[in-house]
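Re: the pair you flagged

First of the two:
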Amino acid sequence: MTTSAPPPSVLVLGTGELGTALLHALTTHPLRGSTRIALLLRPATLLSLPHTTLTDLRTRAVDLLPGDLALDNTDQLAATFAHFHTVIGATGMRLPAGTQRKVCAAALQAGVGCYFPWQFGVDYDVIGQGSAQELFGEQVGVREMLRAQEGGRTRWVVVSVGMFMSFLLEAAFGVVERDGGGRVVGVNALGGWDTRVTVTGVEDIGKMVAELVFGSREER
């Protein structure tokens, strides 16, 4: 199996459920070596991080950078991204419309070596344009931007994992019913008991991305 040098630097965008799993998998990967790993957070979030979280991130040699995906413009984001070889999007559910296109444009403008867009759910090529979900259409547009880049300078990777396993446990999703004490009292099918759903645990998504970042050339 042929191995290649790990990327010199990786920037993770977001520290929610997915971002946390990605950081853990990246920082603990045996092939990390001297790769710089950084986390982009809103300035207000940086100022309010608990001391225990700061200590944990510093222990794992994670650099903290201020930045706001919603408020910063393309040029500002590109200036930040330009310092990194690999940029991984790990947030977007609550961001304003158009943010994913802006982040993609910034990655291409910065000429990053590898970009993982925030597309860890459904396969947007299958859904296509015209979906009732505005975000789905935007995600299709992101893929169109990546495919249309001149010279193909930025390599991009989409990791389609279906649904996050944790979504199935949320009350609003309607699959698992709980009583007032939090005990499971019922399980509902999605549409019908013959409906098949692909789900992946967030920890496994983190491990998968870390292997794509640090793994062998064949695995990449």
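Second of the two:
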Amino acid sequence: MAEATEIHPQHNVPNNIDVKIQDEARERNSVDSAPRSSDRSQHSTKSLSASASVFEQIIENGRAYANESYILPSDEAEQTRLAIIHQCFASILNGQLSMQLIPRSAKRILDIGTGTGDWAIAVAERYPAAEVIGTDIACIQPMGVPPNLFFEIDDARDEWTYSEPFDFIHLRGLSGAISDWAALYAEAYKHLKPSGILEISDFGVVRLGENIPNSYVSLFNGACLSAAEKGGTALGLDYMKRTALEAAGFSVAKTRCFDVPLGTWSPDRRKKVAGKMALIATLEGLEAFSLRLLTRDLSWKPEDVRDLCEKVKEELMRPEARASVPCQFLVARKLMI
């Protein structure tokens, strides 16, 4: 196991918030560390292009983005946040990689929106007999991955072109990324084997322990939700409603929502561990989620967005805030034909 390395956030946090993550900073920003293409697999979708366009980034207000539409950046700060988020999910699931156990017999596993590939790498290591494919719009995946893992630079909003179905499809953290969830669920259904599993997980919006009128948190949430709705890619957890999956033909096997504290205020030991990571990921993610969204869709000035983010951070760091964030899981199955 790699040694743990300490995360150094860009802002001050209490001394007791000392999250450690696995040392998997795999030269994510270097073109030389571009992921292997899955063109070694005859069943892959669009192979990783060798053209320079794959590695181009759009710089806006000091942050780097993979394309002109997706609200989250793909720069080093965001990659660090994604690494923390991966560890946070692992803590919530008590060390497991998914809520639904992936069958040992699984031959093909797909990770949509793989990001830095942490989940796909862990799954490929745990299931060496399975072919694992991770797709994303950003080329931020590492080299030196298990031989059964292939990364694709691909947009899940387009038609999927796989010729062989999957046993397990994993979606995580895609709130605000998709405008037509019905179309994406239809693609997932089409590309699952009969009895195959789709698992979705995501965090909702931050909430304070008490309903404080005119709080900066409520202002932040309201502005981001309004901007996302205007831009056509809603934030929140509504896309995980049971009815949306059933309309695509799935049978929903289970849903569960965890209330994750932000910080260490919970007396529960496991929640303290997850809460440490969730707090840092939230503080790091405020600007990431809001900067492009509010400047593009609500015409805010960048300095005003950053000022609001700082005020939200101050509010969340207060001991009496007792802030939390919902973490939702949904497991659906494609019925046998």
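DSSP finds seven helices and eleven strands in the chain.

-B.
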